[in-house]
Amino acid sequence: MRVIFFSTQQYDKTFFNKFNDSYGFDIVYHKSELTLQTVNLAQGSDAVCVFVNDKVTEEVIIQLSALNVKIIALRCAGFNNVDLEAAKRYGLRVCRVPAYSPEAVAEHAVAMLLTLNRKTHKAYNRVREQNFALNGLLGFDIHGKTVGVLGTGNIGRAFCTIMQGFGCRILAFDLVANKEMEAAGVEFLPLIEVLKQSDIISLHCPLTEQTRHVINKDTLELVKPGVTIINTSRGGLIDTAAVIEALKAGKIGALGIDVYEQEEKLFFRDLSDDIITDDTIQRLMSFPNVLVTAHQAFFTAEALSQIAITTLKNIAELAEANNLTQKAALLV
Ligand code: NAD
Questions:
Q1: pLDDT of residue 324
Q2: Measured in angstroms, how far is the CA atom of residue 197 from the centroid of ligand 1?
Q3: I need a surface site. Which of 66, 86, 148, 149 has the fewest CB within 10 A?
Q4: D-isomer specific 2-hydroxyacid dehydrogenase catalytic domain: from which residue to which, for each copy (predicted)?
Q5: Mind listing the pLDDT tens digit for each residue in 209-227?
Q6: Annotated domain spans of the chain
Q7: Are residues 207 and 233 in contact, defined by beta-carbon separation less than 8 angstroms?
Q8: In whole angstroms, how far apart are CA 283 and each of 88, 238, 245, 278?
Q9: Can 157 be counted among the known catalytic residues?
Q10: Protein residue whose Cα sits closest to atom 20 of ligand 1
């Protein structure tokens, strides 16, 4: 069984090699993203393994099908980058890792919030230059604040639990209210109310046609002045241009983003010697109250182990029995 990896980083090799011993797949790692230009690298393989920024469009799927590839295995949870309808039409199976470590992503969202609020990134640099002044480092107590959570699936739920530990009031919006969470004190409200009442808003819903640009010019009219917005989900949830205007106007107090609409041209690469031509990310990074991390929320040893274990298991099960033990892992 040959599996071709796209968008491979060294850490992918480390974790997949470690857990592949029990499967013995013939894994070929490619650094290139999966695109129409690189799809031929999949020749001779039974499965391709892709990540968040590989564009698995209908055209790519047609080529994969022509190459007799049978399985598209996502080594991530989100799947907005795969044309599932096309995969179905061309008879390819698509699987993902529905939950590997929701805590890893939720904890990173909290890390971004704490950094932005208490400005530890600035303090770190300051004291190294023997500047022990506190001006400009003023934060607020998170205890007692109202936190709005959009999307209360695996990650949103873990985030709510942590924020309850801080002593926050938690408001949530999801398509369906979660009874267990309600019993634990989370208040499910309409989206507008969550946006209006929250001091901190954290995005944890998937990117779909309904959620695209959920943070936009109109919804930013509703939020509290000085609100902190954290996005560890997908860049497309935020209308970046609208957010920049709200930052310029001082409406947004702080913004933490681990994901960005145009991230595929930037993230997971060392561009330190390059000229960045994306003026939007440059503008965002120029705000003192904006923290950008490059899609690293998932990046813990526990999460990478679980991603490798589940992905290899998914591929083995699809190849052998054409079915998956973990139902949520099967997309097509
Ligand atoms: P999940 O499927 O467990 O939960 C998603 C939740 O969003 C569900 O409860 C669903 O009902 C809700 N939802 C769907 N449409 C909605 C809508 N229109 N409005 C409000 N809620 C809606 O997913 P998860 O594991 O919690 O992951 C959430 C997202 O986090 C993923 O889709 C992925 O994009 C992102 N993610 C990011 C990273 C990272 O490293 N930054 C890692 C993993 C996942």
A1: 86
A2: 22
A3: 66
A4: 4-323
A5: 999 999 999 999 999 999 9
A6: 2-100+301-319, 102-292
A7: yes
A8: 40, 15, 11, 9
A9: no
A10: 174
